[in-house]
Structures are given as structure tokens and as C-alpha cells.
Amino acid sequence: MENEDLNKPKLPEEVESDSDKAPGIDFLLPARELPVSPEGTPCFYCSMTGHSPSGCPSRLLPVNIRGLSRVGKLSFPELNSIYEQIFPDYRTALLARLDSGITGHEVSQDKELLVLVSFLDINRLYQLRFLYLIAFSMQSEWQKLEKGGQRSIDRRNLYLGLDYLRVGKYQEAEPLLKKEAGDPSGKTFCANAALAFLALETGHFSEMYPYLKKAEILATLEKERIYIGFLLSRYHQINEDVWRSRNALAIAEKSIYYSDDIAYRKVQL
């Protein structure tokens, strides 16, 4: 009201009680911070702080495996209970299952596996499996990348280089990726992105940047222009430069009218 005294203390019945408010995420999922320690350095691939990128479990996931679409069927108490069971260290048995190869059916049947895969899905855009999709999907549009469609393993050096990188055979991966990057008829964009990941996994984080900037110059397809924006945004975020991270995302946003991925990234930043 126009004459209301804003400094006047409210009567008890006028004060909104906590019970009237919608429960926040800390109430619904109090264990959500378990994968991340304030003292640790977040993994570029998944944001967990208990391992380096070279030890990230996302490297073991096939490109077509997803969990997020299924995990919503779990109640918050059940989800919270599973978080407490598998994080921050996640079970050795789960890693062994990922290493042996998993199917979508297995993910849907095993709730612990489902929760771990779903957590990794949150940051899937920064993982090796997504680069594989960028490299070999015949789709050039960002919105169609994860909707199926044909893939073509049309560059042997790139394919083998990515596979060696995935299993940690860096000495074998590097010459193949550099050969692809130097081939004018090759997929030079993806090769430079892969070389950035190679630098990351071998402990040379700062050496990622020149490869990412080279990939930015080489990006021609819509999916490439958006993807490199995400990778640069992630690089600057890990480097604790929020301004540059947001700017890289803004550049990617110019290539597409709307994307759920970009909208979510804005929330993260």
C-alpha cells in the first residue's frame, strides 16, 4: 500500500513461514555435493574432484549410453540414498562394469549404475564420447546430433587416435592425431580438439588453449562452432575466468536460435 511503513516490524502471522516455501534442492537432495569437494580441482570432463581427467569414469562410457532420461523416475529420497552409497569414491565394482562395457538395458536395471551415468551425463558435452559424436555423426546441426542418425568412421587416423586416447595410450594417440590435424583433407577441427584433450590428460592444462583456439578458427559446421564455444567456456571456467567463460558461450550462441544445452550452461555460470 502507498502509505505502508516499510520499516514497521511484521506481526508473526504476517511473516511467511519456511513451511510455506517450496523445498529447495538442498532439502530434496542434501547429498548432491558429495561428488565435489571445495578443496579439490574439478575434473574437466565431469566436475568431480576425486580424480584427474585421465582417470575420469566418463572415458569408459560408450557414445550412445545415457541415463538422465531414466533417472527422473527415482524419488528424491531414493536418489539421495544412492548418492550416499556411491559418492564421492564410487564403487570399484561400478568402474569394473563400465570398463567391461555396458548396455542401455543394464543402466536401466541397475540403479547405482543409472545414477552414476546420469551424473556423468550432466557434463557430457566436455567428454571424449561427445567429441566422437561430433567427429563421426553425419548430422551437421547441433539439435540433431543426439537424435540418432548415421555415423561414418571415415577418418582412420582420427578414429584410432581417439580410441588410443580413450584408453590412455597417449604415445600412440599423439602422432595419429597430429597427422590428421596436418592433413588438409582431414577432419582438422576434431583432431585439434582431440589434441587439446591429450594435453589435458597428460597434465598440461594450459597447452589445451592453443589447440582449442586453432579448432575455433577451423570450425565451419554449425555443430563445430557451437561445440568449440562450449569447450572454450569450460576451459575458462576451470581456469576460474568467469567473464571469458560467458563470452565464449555467447559466441557459440550466435550460431543457433535456441538450445537447451546453452540455456543450461547459462544456469551453470
Protein described:
This protein has 269 residues and is mostly helical. The protein is 52% helix and 0% strand. It is globular. It starts with 24 loop residues before the first helix and ends with a helix.
Topology overview:
Blueprint: H1 25-28, H2 68-71, H3 76-86, H4 92-100, H5 104-109, H6 111-121, H7 128-136, H8 156-166, H9 170-181, H10 188-201, H11 208-218, H12 222-238, H13 242-253, H14 260-268
Helix pairs in contact: 3-6, 7-10, 8-9, 8-10, 9-10, 10-11, 11-12, 12-13
**Major pleated sheet:** none
- Overall mean confidence score, pLDDT: 87
What's the tally of helices?
14
| Helix amount | 40-55%
The oligomeric state of the chains shown is: single chain
* Total beta strand runs: 0
Short overview:
By secondary structure, the chain is mainly alpha-helical. It has helices spanning 25-28, 68-71, 76-86, 92-100, 104-109, 111-121, 128-136, 156-166, 170-181, 188-201, 208-218, 222-238, 242-253, 260-268.
